[in-house]
Amino acid sequence: MGSIPKTVLLVDDEPFIRGLTRRILSGLGVESFLEASSGSEALSILKACGKSTELILCDLMMPDMDGIELVRHLSELPHPPAIAFLSGADDMVLKAACSLANARLLNVLGAVSKPISHEEILPILKRLEQRAVRPSSGPTLKIGKDDLERGIKADEFVLHYQPKVSLKSLSLSSVEALVRWEHPEHGMIFPDSFIELAESTLLIAPMTEKLVELSFRQLQKWETVGLLTRVALNLSPAMLFDTELPDRLSRLAASLALDPSRIIFEITETGAPSDEAVFLEIVTRLHMHGFVISIDDFGTGRSSLLNLEALPFSELKIDRAFVDGAAQDNTKRNILKASVGLAKSLNLKIVAEGVEHLEDWDLVTELGCDIVQGYFVSRPLPAADLPLWVTQWQSQHKGRKE
């Protein structure tokens, strides 16, 4: 069983429901409870309480401040607890509440209808351990352009690598390179604090090219210890305006004796470039140079089908919004199933990102996805930790390959 929270805040205006929930949770091992009859009371408790609250179980329909409004205020706290919704509202409202809380970067564990049962609440509690400690830099830091430019020149940006595994062989398929900033003053900073600034100032281009070289050289280092894999990197549309980019990246790969097919460039759908013709030229020439082109976060952009028709993609990466929790959500399941069917009809490799639970792993396997990425497989790792992770993964899954 996953970790059971020690302290839970129950937020519901019905004393009977709070009492019933408390008895069920006590039987599952929860030791301490805080209670509030409205969102505003819950917020006051969180601000005043000295001990850490690990989980909020929150109703949506409450007087004074309802659960939806509480979500907004929770997102403004420096260290908000995880949240799950227990409500008599219909399924559409519960799904909307979860989507809103996710959009505000809260750790959302799910939603169940009232009154709850042991069977319904136990999976919620299990997810607390699985989804805790999602990378975040906490409150967004105020980073300026000058500091960002200085950090790029000083080579303060590093890469962590998240493994992606083949569902057929259960072996390592590739890794996604994810940027981190080792800031001399603020310590480790995650990309939510600087990527938007990098894109708006066009500093994303010099930053990305440095990171590309860093990842290429890391492939060489892994190869010397017997680890042969591929690396995926995100190319923001904000940097795809330089027609010389494909040639520079091709020369870099050749100088390091790297086969371009070991490099996957993920092109996100959002933030379409101002010059579509140049964008199409660059992506096509990257493909012609032998690099693998993947459409990232499929389903979240405004021109998904147009992009699939116009560009030489070899891989389709389904956004985590349609994967995480799809096993329990019919709407997500249907969108996921349709995306997989479309990718198969176009002969594209299918990557399911955001797989965090066994149920979703089983679902993407059943639907015929090719590759899985997510916390169920591994968190992003420092480069030096990947060889050991591969050894441990292979040992755990020995004998289970098809």
Radius of gyration: 23 Å
Task: Name the CATH homologous superfamily of the largest domain.
Answer: EAL domain
* Share of residues in helices: 40-55%
Mean pLDDT: 86
Instruction: Tell me the total number of β-strands.
Output: 15
| Straight-line distance between termini | 28 Å
Number of helices: 14
- Strand order of the biggest β-sheet: 6-7-9-10-11-12-13-14
Number of structurally distinct domains: 2
Q: Would you give the CATH topology of the largest domain?
A: TIM Barrel
Q: How does the SSE layout of this entry go?
A:
Blueprint: E1 7-11, H1 15-27, E2 32-36, H2 39-48, E3 55-58, H3 67-74, E4 82-87, H4 91-103, E5 108-113, H5 118-131, H6 145-153, E6 157-166, E7 172-183, E8 187-189, H7 195-200, H8 204-224, E9 231-235, H9 245-255, E10 263-268, H10 276-288, E11 292-298, H11 304-310, E12 315-318, H12 330-345, E13 349-353, H13 358-367, E14 371-373, E15 381-382, H14 386-396
Parallel strand pairs: 1-2, 1-3, 3-4, 4-5, 7-9, 9-10, 10-11, 11-12, 12-13, 13-14
Antiparallel strand pairs: 6-7, 6-14, 6-15, 7-8
Helix pairs in contact: 2-3, 9-10
